[in-house]
Q: What sequence folds into this?
C-alpha cells in the first residue's frame, strides 16, 4: 500500500530542453538505493506538465524499467479522454495508482461528477490531488464527497491550509489514505493520521525526509518536530531560487543529477549557485 517517504522526481532536461531519460533512470536508481519508499511520476513540481503525452508516457516507462518501489503517476490532463488514456497507459505499463488533480484551468459547476466519470472508467486505484497552484481548489466538503466515490483510495493534500487539512481528516472515509503534498506539512499530516509524504526535497536530501517520515510513523513527535523545522528552513532556501533551479542544483551538489530546468533562463547564475551552496553548508547538508 502506498505511503512513507515518496519522491516526486524531477524530469531531467538536457541543454536543448529535451528529456534526458538516461539521467532520469540514474537518479531513480540512486534514490531507490537511498531508501525512498516510492515514486509519484510526472508530478507538477517535477515539471512534467510541459511534456507531450508521449513524453509523459515514456517518462513513466523509464521509471518503471529501473524501480522496484511503489509507483503512482499523475495523469491529469485538460480533457477527460486524455486523462483516461493516461490511466490506461499507466495500468498497462505497470503503475500501481493514478493521481488525479482538480480540472485544469476551467472551473466546473459540479467537480464531483467529473471525478465520478473518471472513477467509473479507471483501471487503477485513484488518489485525489488538490493542488493550490492549479487554482479551482476543491473545498473540504468536495474532497470528502470525492473520497466516498468507489475507486478513490487516498488524498494528496497540497492546499497548504491546515484548517482544510484538519476538516478533511475529520470527515474522510476511514479507509482513505492521507498523504502530505507539501514538505512544509509532513509533521501536521502525520499528526492527523496521514501515512506519507510526496516530497520534492527528498530528491535532494533523501535521508532528511525519510528520517522525518520514520520518526512520525513511530510516534516520536519531538524528533519529528525538530526535523520538520529543518525541512522548512531547507524548503525556504531552495524555493528562493525559482520553481526548480535551486532544487536541481542542490541535488547535483548532493550527488543526484536531475539535469537542467526546462527553460534554461531559470538556471542559477554563478553568484546564486555560490550563495545556495553556502546556505546549505550552514545547515550541515553538504
A:
Amino acid at each position: 500500500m502506498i505511503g512513507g517517504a515518496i519522491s516526486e522526481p524531477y524530469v531531467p532536461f538536457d541543454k536543448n530542453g529535451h528529456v534526458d531519460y538516461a539521467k532520469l533512470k540514474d537518479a531513480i536508481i540512486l534514490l531507490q538505493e537511498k531508501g525512498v519508499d516510492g515514486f509519484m511520476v510526472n508530478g507538477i513540481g517535477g515539471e512534467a506538465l510541459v511534456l507531450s503525452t508521449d513524453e509523459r508516457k515514456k517518462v513513466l516507462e523509464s521509471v518503471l524499467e529501473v524501480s522496484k518501489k511503489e509507483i503512482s503517476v499523475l495523469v491529469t490532463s485538460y480533457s477527460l479522454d486524455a486523462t483516461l488514456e493516461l490511466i490506461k497507459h499507466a495500468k498497462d505499463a505497470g503503475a500501481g495508482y493514478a493521481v488525479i488533480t482538480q480540472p485544469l484551468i476551467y472551473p466546473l459547476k459540479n467537480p464531483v461528477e467529473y471525478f465520478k466519470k473518471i472513477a467509473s472508467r479507471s483501471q487503477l486505484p485513484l488518489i485525489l490531488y488538490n493542488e493550490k497552484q492549479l487554482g479551482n481548489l476543491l473545498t473540504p466538503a468536495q474532497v470528502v464527497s470525492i473520497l466516498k466515490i468507489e475507486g478513490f483510495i487516498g488524498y494528496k493534500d497540497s492546499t497548504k491550509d491546515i484548517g482544510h487539512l484538519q476538516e478533511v481528516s475529520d470527515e474522510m472515509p476511514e479507509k482513505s489514505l492521507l498523504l502530505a503534498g507539501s514538505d512544509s506539512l509532513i509533521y501536521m499530516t502525520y499528526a492527523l493520521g496521514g501515512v506519507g509524504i510526496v516530497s520534492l526535497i527528498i530528491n535532494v536530501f533523501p535521508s532528511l525526509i525519510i528520517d522525518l517520515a520514520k520518526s512520525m510513523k513511530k510516534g516520536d513527535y519531538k524528533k519529528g518536530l525538530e526535523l520538520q523545522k529543518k525541512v522548512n528552513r531547507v524548503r525556504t532556501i531552495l524555493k528562493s531560487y525559482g520553481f526548480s533551479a535551486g532544487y536541481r542544483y542542490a541535488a547535483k551538489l548532493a550527488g543526484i543529477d536531475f539535469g537542467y530546468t526546462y527553460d534554461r533562463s531559470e538556471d542559477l547564475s554563478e553568484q546564486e549557485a555560490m550563495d545556495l551552496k553556502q546556505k546549505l553548508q550552514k545547515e550541515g547538508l553538504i
Summary: The chain has one domain: 4-282.
